[in-house]
Amino acid sequence: MAPSAVPLDVFSHVEEDSHYRVKRIKLSSSKISISEAPGDDPVAIPSHPLGIKPSGNAYTASEDIKSACGLFSRLPDELLNYLLERLDAFDLVTLGATCKALYAFTTTEELWKNLFIALPPKSFTWYGTWRSTYLKLPHTSEFRISCRNLYSDVLYRPFHCAHMPLKPYTTNIPPKNLIPRFSDLTHEEFSTKWTDTPFILTSPVKEWPIYENWTPKTLLSKYADVKFRAEAVDWPLKTYMDYMKNNNDESPLYLFDQNFVEKTNISVGKDTKDAVYWPPTCFGEDFFSVLGDQRPDCRWMIMGPERSGSTFHKDPNATSAWNAVLTGTKYWLLFPSHPTLPLPPGVIISHDQSEITSPLSIAEYLLSFHSIARLTPGCREAICYAGEVLHVPSGWFHLVLNLSESLALTQNFVPRQRLADVLEFLRDQKNQVSGFAENVTDAFGLFVARLKESCPEVLEEVFGELERRGRKVGKQKSRGKWEELTRANEPRQDDIGFSFGFGNEDDEEVP
Ligand SMILES: O=C(O)CCC(=O)C(=O)O
Ligand SMILES: [Fe+2]
Which atom of ligand 1 has the smallest separation from the CA of 400? Predict the structure, then answer.
């Protein structure tokens, strides 16, 4: 599931010759012919509604209205913006009334979105912008001041990112990056060849009763007043859809609801009476199902406008996933994660591998890193259309961008061939385990116990696999870099005699 989580941090990262905004989030969170150069089409981006221009224009300008801001004019734009993030609505409006440049700095959408999310009004009408919604100003009563001689990347960049054309980045995919498409696969084909490879299936979703019956419009007609989760807010569907149809956000709020089955009262699953969808059969048995109602969150309904999507992340608990598009179109960019392969360009992983720092928005990523991403070994890309489902293998980084308004369903699962990865993750990356109920304090122990009850022979095989992996790591590194990086404070597997006994609990020695 995507990192719809609130960013841990948002800040500007300056490299020698580039300047892009970044954010830091949990790495796996419980849940987006170039004949023209990307972003080169000036006519496709409208002028800024206040007339603000990028900073570079200041060099040839005769006037810069920021100089009329008194002491504020001495602050770099980033610092000024940082200070404004600490003000409340009254202070922002008051300060914004003092001069044109401060009007521009105090009316940015990000400031008002943060105020709104921090203290959401009980009831409200979406008026097209966060500021007008927060201040209850229908667009018609909002006035705009021209700030024509203001030159600021801090103010202009979000506007550029919210309006730049996406096509130059998502078309002309190099053939070597293209994700393969099949009508369908058998379980045998999936499990022998495809569990570590992204692919698209074009048939299974078209057989679901839900396909073509569930669209944003039909959902609205039935569930207008039902609240769905969109990142940090729970809004009635009709409010979310007003927002979806009318916003100019650089990273539009994304509806990501894990309780949609209960909220819409549908039946799901292959052997369920009147089921409206089921996992494509090629994925076979899902080993997390041995956990019954103790399994971690596993399915989500996802809806969002053009430009919404998911920034780079890995899915939780080293699970695999399928993502089925019911309406709209999604652009996918994926990278495998392996010690011998490079990380996706522009992505930085924390020392303990729990946090990921990457460009602040999908558009920011496309502007700064897409061209190099395409040339990076391991890069895979595709456009997934309505009626298609994409397989995200366990551990792969992925970024997803909606190219039009879209509705999708996704489910995380554990196929037999990736069971060892999931067990290893639950055992070794305990601080990153997510999606389990709060009373589950030892997800690894719980999963092992349930597997032992349901399929002891599978568990024995998987522990064999883990033991071989442990030995290999031990041999290759003999307390080398990889172990230092991943198991800083833990004893090595071979030091503690990793073993798993069947029948006699005293034998059981699980780290
Ligand atoms: O459709 C999307 O935005 C991708 C969702 C995703 O990656 C996830 O659920 O983990
Ligand atoms: Fe994901």
Answer: 3
Within 8 A by CB and 6+ apart from 108, the residues are: 81, 155, 158
Tell me which of 30-39, 212-221, 364-373 is least confident: 30-39
Closest CA to 390 of 207, 179, 177: 179
- Closest to 234 in 3D by CA, of 123, 144, 154: 123
| 45 neighbors 331 (Cβ within 8 angstroms) | no
Q: Of 342, 348, 321, whose CA–CA distance to 332 is shortest?
A: 321
Question: What SS3 state is found at 22?
Answer: strand
Q: Is the CB of 300 under 6 A from ligand 1?
A: yes
Q: What is the pLDDT of residues 207-221, one digit of tens each?
A: 999 999 999 999 999
Rounded to the nearest integer, the mean pLDDT of the chain is 88
**CB-based contacts of 236: which residues, under 8 Å, 6+ apart?**
224, 225, 226, 227
For residues 336-344, average pLDDT: 91
At residue 481, the pLDDT reads: 45
**Å from CA of 315 to ligand 2 middle:** 5
Residue for token pair 């369903």? 409
Angle between helices 77-84 and 153-163 (to 10 degrees): 80
Question: Quick check: CB of 412 below 6 Å from ligand 1?
Answer: no
Say yes or no: CB of residue 107 within 6 Å of ligand 1: no
Q: Answer for the pair 373, 359: CB distance below 8 angstroms, yes or no.
A: no
Average pLDDT over residues 28-46: 53
Identify the nearest ligand to the CA of 394 by its number. 2
- The answer on pLDDT for 506 being more than 50 is no
Dihedral sign for Cα atoms in the order 348, 352, 353, 357? negative
User: Does 315 contact ligand 1 (Cβ within 6 A)?
Assistant: yes
**What's the CA gap between 102 and 106, in Å, rounded?**
6
Domains within the chain, CATH numbers bracketed: 46-163 (no CATH), 173-344+378-416 (2.60.120.650), 468-511 (no CATH)
Q: Which ligand is nearest to the CA of 1?
A: 1
Categorize the per-residue pLDDT at 474 as very low, low, confident or very high, splitting at 50, 70 and 90: low
Going by CA atoms, what residue is nearest to atom 8 of ligand 1? 1
Q: Is 323 in the pocket of ligand 1 (CB under 6 A)?
A: yes
